[in-house]
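Table 4 source record.
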Amino acid sequence: MLADLGYALAQAAVYYSIMLAMFHYRKWIGIGTFFCALCALTFAENYLAITVFVGLGPVVYTPGSVVLFTGKLLLLLLVYIREDAQVVRQPIYGLLIGNFVIIAVVLLVSYQTRIGTSAAGFAIDMVAESTWLSVWGTVLLFVDSVALILLYERLCRVRWLPLFGRLWVSAVVVLAFDQLAFFTALHAFFGVPFSAGAGGFFGKVVASGVYSFVLWAYLRYLEGHLDASDHQNRLRDVFGVLTYRQRFEEMRETARLDALTGAENRRSLFEGGAALIQKSVGRGEPVSLFMIDIDGFKKINDAHGHSAGDLVLNDFVALMHE
């Protein structure tokens, strides 16, 4: 049992030491490198979840779900904590879309091999089944990731709960839902026994605790992330930094639009006009500028009030868009 526990810890150590190293040096090698490695492990994750079950005393678990999937979920939360929602969206959507592409290709190959040898048809059918499970797991990953982020943010309002506690509690709650949904598919399609489901959930709880502790240490000592208990005002500062990039882009876009009608304003013309002209000239196309005035608009405001004038402006802009 001690040997099996040592192997499990070694697997987690190899996995997280490499992934955290890539994340830590993301400014030099690019965060895309980290995302590629994270997404590339999906095939091994699903393959191990189907084929490999390990006994640890009375507990039976699969390294695919316990070691790889649990670790990946918390790594996505780490991306959100240190980057923002805009960045963490990329691997989540990439996994979702990529697996749909895979299932489409595998199904086409499956139909092709039905006219060939039986061995080839049997092999591709096995791959097709595991691919369907991969898609289901990816859909769950999408739901799990969003739920994990929302729950983590909610727990950040609990002042007495330290960072490690927020990470672990968030992971355990989401993994309980995931285990129920994913194990239902495993049991239905592959006949995985119920004992493996119970052991898998226990393993995920333990693994999420280990990973949460590692991430706590990483955030505190390598990324300089202060916990709420270290500074009472730090909590709002952290989420201010997390969402700064998105809020900045939203403010930048809003500054280019008229607040009343949503039409692009003079600033938008100054920022984008030159590019539009260059694009038209490069294509050899004419450039046109319309200057439009509403006759007697002041009379509308004077006679019916500025609210009526606002309605006229909104209707006029809508007409121009049409």
